[in-house]
């Protein structure tokens, strides 16, 4: 189980971070925004080789980045394990480099972990999730890399569209 942080000297809980790739980042952001305890979300790119890539470069498939949602959450209100449950529920982790009609490495299923507790929790949850699927899960569980925020028009995109 990922350990919850202890209150700082001021008595406030420090927000923790998590990053997930589960297909088109618009949908993923909308789903995590609904989770009580998630305080901030931003869509962008992680896991690639080009610094500060544009959406167009990522979609061109040459940067190696995944579309991701980076979030900050209050671990006293929601556990990392609960975030993993949401992650597994909102996409098909057995589809390699695609989700629905979106195809390409940028749409891969990925968990980017920030510490050993998150890594262990992700691996355990993947093992449990695999029991629910006939096909193998292809989700990558990898160390967190630099997160590059997507352009502002991508942030809360579905909400801006009235969905």
In short:
The protein is α+β, with helices and mostly antiparallel strands. The protein is built from five helices and eight strands. It has helices at 25-33, 55-59, 80-89, 116-130, 157-160, and strands spanning 16-22, 38-46, 66-73, 98-99, 102-103, 109-113, 140-143, 148-149.
What's the number of extended β-strand segments? 8
Shape: globular
Distance N terminus to C terminus?
35 Å
- Overall tally of domains: 1
Low-pLDDT segments, ≥5 res: none
**CATH homologous group name:** Peptide methionine sulphoxide reductase MsrA
Total helical segments:
5
SSE string, helices as H and strands as E: EHEHEHEEEHEEH
Portion of residues in beta strands equals 15-25%
- CATH fold-level assignment: Peptide Methionine Sulfoxide Reductase, Chain A
Roughly what percent helix? 25-40%
Q: Report the mean per-residue pLDDT as an integer.
A: 90
CATH secondary-structure class? Alpha Beta
Query: What Rg, in angstroms, do the CA atoms define?
Result: 15 Å
Q: Taking strands numbered 1, 2, ... along the chain, how are they ordered across the largest sheet?
A: 7-6-1-3-2-8
Named at the architecture level, the CATH assignment is: 2-Layer Sandwich
Major pleated sheet: 6 strands, mixed
- Strand-pairing-aware structural class: alpha+beta
Q: What is the subunit organization of this protein?
A: single chain
């Amino acid at each position: 189980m990922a350990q919850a942080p202890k209150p700082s000297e001021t008595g406030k809980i420090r927000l923790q971070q998590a990053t997930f790739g589960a297909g088109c980042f618009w949908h993923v952001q909308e789903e995590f925004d609904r989770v009580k305890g998630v305080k901030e979300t931003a869509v962008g790119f992680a896991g690639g080789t080009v610094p500060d890539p544009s959406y167009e470069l990522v979609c061109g498939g040459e940067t190696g980045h995944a579309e991701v949602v980076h979030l900050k959450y209050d671990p006293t209100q929601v556990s990392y394990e609960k975030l993993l449950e949401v992650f597994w529920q909102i996409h098909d982790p057995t589809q390699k480099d695609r989700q629905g009609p979106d195809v390409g490495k940028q749409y891969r299923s990925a968990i980017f972990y920030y510490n050993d507790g998150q890594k262990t929790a992700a691996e355990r949850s993947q093992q449990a999730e695999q029991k629910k699927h006939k096909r193998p899960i292809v989700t990558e569980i990898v160390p967190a890399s630099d997160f590059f925020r997507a352009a502002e028009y991508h942030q809360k995109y579905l909400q801006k569209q009235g969905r």
